[in-house]
Specification:
This protein has helices at 6-15, 17-34, 40-72, 74-96, 103-117, 121-124, 130-140, 146-155, 161-180, 183-193, 196-222. The protein is an all-alpha fold. The chain has one domain (6-222).
Length: 223
């Protein structure tokens, strides 16, 4: 059974979309202005499609790895559920801005993954075609973001690779409204998501969900 729901992944993406605007919004905007020969809406859609494809690919790979080992070892499978619960708590605290609980994850991902992938930038710039826009989005989908990599830890306890891809797709769809919004609309959405009451309310959902996962996992470990 998958205790990580697609709805929770979507909400995580929606709540974290203000963070996405900071990390990726400038890149998306600069791409739209990069060439007068490319349609700005197509550029935005293709960039975000590339980003989503990378999320789904990562979710597929991580879930396949996790499910393979989990099927061979019950204790390992339950440990993954404990890990998912812990990351739910960390995300809740991060969303509520009580502490920078995911900074270490971003730093680790930057060292292990991003510093190598970012070198591919030179093969995609300048972005003069729609194919390059899509590829650029796929590359920047691996940008070290604590929320993205937290969602990936959830895919570790997915029952299958396909469900891992669905978790990351749901997360990505949550980020889309902010990433596709422009100008005043994006600012209004960002203000709403960053309102203290909204952050506390949504962060609390993740904390309670994390506690729920930990209770289930520890109960199974004991029995």
């Amino acid at each position: 059974m998958n205790e990580i729901s697609l709805l929770s992944a979507f909400i995580m993406g929606l709540v974290g979309s203000g963070h996405c605007l900071v990390m990726c919004g400038g890149i998306a905007s600069s791409l739209q202005l990069a060439s007068s020969t490319l349609n700005s809406w197509r550029v935005s859609l293709l960039y975000n499609t590339g980003r989503i494809l990378s999320y789904m690919l990562a979710g597929t790979l991580v879930a396949a790895l996790g499910s393979t080992f989990a099927k061979q070892n019950t204790t390992f499978a339950l440990s993954l559920k404990v890990l998912s619960g812990i990351f739910m708590l960390l995300v809740g605290i991060y969303v509520m801005r009580l502490a920078s609980t995911l900074k270490w994850l971003e730093a680790g991902a930057k060292t292990v993954i991003w510093q190598h992938l970012v070198k591919l930038n030179k093969y995609l710039l300048p972005v003069t075609s729609y194919a390059r826009v899509l590829a650029y989005g796929m590359l920047w989908g691996w940008l070290p973001c604590g929320l993205v990599y937290s969602a990936l830890t959830w895919t570790l306890q997915a029952d299958s690779a396909s469900y891992g891809a669905l978790i990351m797709l749901s997360f990505a769809l949550g980020t889309l409204p902010a990433m596709l919004a422009v100008g005043q609309s994006a600012q209004q959405l960002s203000r709403f998501l960053n309102h203290t009451l909204v952050r506390v309310g949504l962060g609390s959902i993740f904390i309670w969900y994390g506690i729920y996962l930990l209770i289930i996992a520890t109960d199974r470990l004991v029995h």
